[in-house]
Design brief:
This protein is an alpha/beta fold. It has one domain: Stationary-phase Survival Protein Sure Homolog, Chain: A. Helix content is 27%, strand content 22%. The protein contains 9 helices and 13 strands. A 9-stranded mixed β-sheet has the order 3-4-2-1-5-6-7-13-8, with helices on both faces. Strands 9-12 form a two-stranded antiparallel ribbon. Helix 1 crosses helix 6 and helix 3 (89-104) crosses helix 5 (131-141).
């Protein structure tokens, strides 16, 4: 089993498709670092599909052993299993975490999910459209810690910077997680985790106030927080602990008259993008050539499992190197 006993299994997916260059580079890099890998990724590009899923529709799943050889991977040294699914990024996580992974690779209990590396940014409101982030969020719904990673450029030149940053984020996250996701499938349902928002009823001093960093690590381990990484092509090696920023897509719709009375064509794709500066915003961080690392709640505001807003504010506290303080254990 190679180094499987020394490192936790990583479950990988993306939204650009299994043969996307960023995904290939990430698989190779993580394999080289000795992480046992289970890959269940879309067979085709599913960018900007958010959390779309296929209901009551059979989806083909195939082994991609051909990529193992083509990418120069050595499964005898470190376990690596590659599969493609005819479905969306969220479909890959549902199939994997609701029994499919155990069926395909018995004993491969993931430590965390890594989704990406995406070609193009996933900043600000992109988080609602992104298939990369949708897959990470779906993993969280299943109680599994997840990292989504994106290169903030629409071509692959310089992608190696995003790969390096993702390796760093995975290594840091692995240190605060148990070898296996302890909450996979949420076997205990609703628990008094001590870090949920007490809205609409305030119940006094929150339990998490005793030790915010410990409760943030617990929320991440339980799948109630995810990490979102965005790496610019100008990355200087530094990090910034961020929240979602504010960006605007201008002239996002192009209209074309086909010359008939019944049909017209609309194409979505912004002619320009700008952003408004906010304190600790992810857009602002990448403008400063930093890798942005945002801690995002899995459950929406007002959901009973939503992480406390007060605790989320503590997630912005950072080390001198820019990493979230709660994520770094000396």
């Amino acid at each position: 089993m190679g180094m499987a006993g020394q490192r936790g299994w990583l479950l990988l997916t993306n939204d650009d498709g299994i043969e996307a260059v960023g995904f290939e580079m990430l698989v190779k890099a993580l394999h080289s670092e000795g992480y046992p890998l289970a890959v269940i990724a879309p067979s085709e590009n599913h960018s900007a599909t958010g959390m779309r899923i296929n209901l009551m529709k059979p989806m083909g799943l195939r082994s991609r052993d051909d990529l193992t050889q083509r990418w120069g991977l050595d499964p005898h040294r470190t376990p690596v299993h590659l599969f493609e699914l005819d479905g969306s990024p969220c479909d890959t996580m549902i199939v994997a975490l609701d029994g499919g992974l155990n069926h395909l690779v018995p004993g491969a209990h993931p430590q965390m999910v890594v989704s990406g590396v995406n070609l193009g940014p996933n900043l600000s409101q992109d988080s609602y459209h992104s298939g990369t982030m949708g897959a990470a969020r779906e993993a969280g719904l299943y109680g599994v810690p997840a990292i989504a990673s994106s290169f903030t450029k629409f071509d692959a030149e310089g992608m190696e910077k995003a790969i390096q940053a993702t390796l760093e984020a995975v290594a840091v996250a692995a240190k605060v997680l148990p070898p296996q996701a302890k909450n996979l499938g949420r076997p205990n349902g609703s628990t008094n985790a001590g870090y949920y928002e007490d809205w609409p009823m305030e119940t006094g001093a929150p339990q998490w106030a005793e030790n915010p960093n410990r409760f943030l690590r617990s929320a991440f381990a339980d799948g109630d927080l995810m990490l979102n990484v965005n790496v610019p092509p100008t990355w200087d090696g530094g990090w910034a602990s961020t929240r979602l920023g504010v960006r605007w897509y201008r002239n996002a719709v192009r209209f074309e008259d086909t010359g008939t009375k019944q049909t017209a064509t609309f194409t979505i794709g912004a002619a320009s993008v700008d952003h408004s500066e906010v304190d600790a915003g992810d857009c602002d961080a990448v403008e400063l050539s930093k890798a942005s690392l945002s801690c995002l709640a899995i459950w929406p505001q007002s959901h009973p499992f939503a992480v406390s807003n007060g605790l989320m504010a503590h997630a912005l506290n950072n080390t001198v190197d820019g990493w979230p303080s709660w994520l770094v254990i000396d």
